[in-house]
Amino acid sequence: STMEETDREAVATAVQRVAGMLQRPDQLDKVEQYRKREARKKASVEARLKAAIQSQLDGVRTGLSQLHNALNDVKDIQQSLIDVNKDWRQSINTIENLKDISFKLFQNNYYSCSPASFLALLFSFPEIVRETQDLIERGELLQAHRKLMDLECSRDNLMYEQYRMDSKNTHDMNLIHTYFGDMQKLSEELAKQLWMVVQRSLVTVRRDPTLLVSVVRIIEREEKIDRRMLDRKKQTGFIPPGRPKKWKEKMFNILERTVSTRIEGTQADTRESDKMWLVRHLEIIRKYVLDDLLVAKTLLDQCFPPHYDIFNRLLNMYHQALATRMQELAAEDLEANEIVSLLSWVLNTYKSAEMMGNSELSPEVDVNSLDSLISQNVVDQLLSKYMSTLTSNIIGWLRKALETDKKDWIKETEPEADQDGYYQTTLPAIVFQMFEQNLQVAAQINEDLKTKVLLLCLQQMNSFLTRYKDETQLYKEEHLKNRQYPQCYVQYMIAVINNCQTFKESIISLKRKYLKADVEDMLSSSHTNMDAILDIIAKEGCSSLLDEVFMDLEPHLNELMTKKWLMGSNAVGTICVTVEDYFNDFARIKKPYKKTMTLEAHRRVVVEYIRAIMLKRISFKNAEERKEGAERMIKEAEQFRFLFKKLAAGSGEGTEGLCDIIEAIAEVIKLTDPSLLYLEVSTLVSKYPDIRDDHIAALLTVRGDASRDMKQTIIETLDQGPSQPNPNYVPIFKEITVPTLTVPKLLK
């Protein structure tokens, strides 16, 4: 309806306007003009109307947008109010505390500063704690400590004032203590950082000495505060919680633990995983300790104030830690070689130039003033354990060496020869190599032990040689049961004989090398004894080898002085060839024994030859036979003489005299004039005074022409005759027995 009214009003107005325009008739001509003008006006009004509506719309849009933002802001404010409310509720307790604390302060008028600035401190406390915590985490320890000191100072003064006003009021004290509780954690956190630096001080001092210096400065500051607080305690009785901190003392304790751990931590292996575990362990300790002390002397010393005496304190710590470690090792169940390694290290290496005696450590380290790492008592126990272990080891080694050697004796191959071609076995070399090794080991410890070990070796050698002697005897007996076996019996017996000479020489060189003159007397009897046993072994060996020769000669010796012999058998030729053949092997016997062998062989051949005569196997029928037999004897004596001269070549030993006896007997048999027989026999007896009556009787029986009365007369007369033996003559007839009951058939 409003729209209709408006329309009506518009129409009325328009009518009125048109009426006003057309009041005169001439104005009708201008109707077109009026119409155009009105049309233009209308267009203008419409345009303005449109713009006004557009502008109105834009304004509405902007308004809506701002209302929307306003709504969001209201929501944010609402949330913030909730948060504030929450914080407020949580802070009520703290505010109550602060109210109590500030009330106490204002009430007692503690602080000269205004309540506002004091409250500022209380409110900023959590912030300062956070900052300090950040500094610690960033490793800026000096600044962190400065803040911590300020906080502690505030708290301590506060508590001191409270104490002064009312020392019995623990409630208020606890109030303050609780409020500043985080500060204690800060102090512990900082300390933890300091101890980490102290633990690694020997590394840190090389990489970042300023860090170490900062730590020392902090400790020094704390020591100063400790002293101040203790002084105040003397005067007032008050000391803040956590004092004295004693950080210097703690620092030294940390260092001590670090040193102990460093030394214990060097054992990388156990005996199961590595035979040389102890040697390795001790070597690593030596290296670490020397390196550490050199660093301590050259670098660490400069980071600490002189009154810390840091180098000497550390030196002492290392010495104590080493003493503890060495005692632990000494208490373990060590093997003999391990005992030596330990003692050698403790008694020698420790104070040597490789360790504490290093020139770069002097003059600060004086090895003469260092105590022993283990007591003399423990050293003695270890040494006695070593000696008893070594004794049983040596007995075991010697037994094993002999068993191994015996296995060689039955081999089917010859023993090896030394560079001069003398047969030998490895036994002496093995035995003395073992002695040498143990003596060199003992020498690492000290002279005294070396002498004890040498005496032990020689003492065991003595018993060993007795066993050696018994074994060679058994070897010989076994061989005699079956002479075909072992195949190389002669060669191995030669090796045994040569070993005796090697043993003798080795004993002498061992004593010369390892023995001081003053101990020589203690050993002379045992040495003489060993030499005697060795001579017996060698002599029995030689004699068993000659037994071999004479067992092979037996059939040929049995042919001597028989009819066959007289007819021209070649028994002596065969004997000489056999002996020479054996002596080709005997050339492998060392000189002193070979010389004895040659003499003994010569002597035994002559003895057997004379025994063959005394056996009365033949009795010559006439002068012709006597001449023939005697000449054969003289010729054969010459054969023997030639053979043994050849065998003894180079030894310069005259054994001419032995064959002379055969020739002298031949002269008695050859004699053609019986009236001169007494004279010839008496000459023989004066030269060889050990000839007995039964020998002369046997000789006359072989001659075949002397009656019983004649024999009787000659024998009785001889007893009064003087004897003129050669001073070098070794009695030979006393070995020869004459058979009594077996009367040769030829005499019947």
UniProtKB/TrEMBL annotation:
Location relative to the cell: Cell projection, Growth cone; Cytoplasm, Perinuclear region; Golgi apparatus; Midbody
Example GO molecular function: SNARE binding
UniProt entry keywords in alphabetical sequence: Acetylation, Cell projection, Cytoplasm, Exocytosis, Golgi apparatus, Protein transport, Transport
Family: Belongs to the SEC6 family.
Classification via PANTHER family: EXOCYST COMPLEX COMPONENT 3 (PTHR21292:SF13), EXOCYST COMPLEX COMPONENT SEC6-RELATED (PTHR21292)
Subunit annotation: The exocyst complex is composed of EXOC1, EXOC2, EXOC3, EXOC4, EXOC5, EXOC6, EXOC7 and EXOC8. Interacts with EXOC3L1. Interacts with BIRC6/bruce. Interacts with MYRIP. Interacts with SLC6A9.
Record function comment: Component of the exocyst complex involved in the docking of exocytic vesicles with fusion sites on the plasma membrane.
Full protein name: Exocyst complex component 3
Natural source organism: Psilopogon haemacephalus (coppersmith barbet)
Organism ancestry: Eukaryota, Metazoa, Chordata, Craniata, Vertebrata
Gene: Exoc3
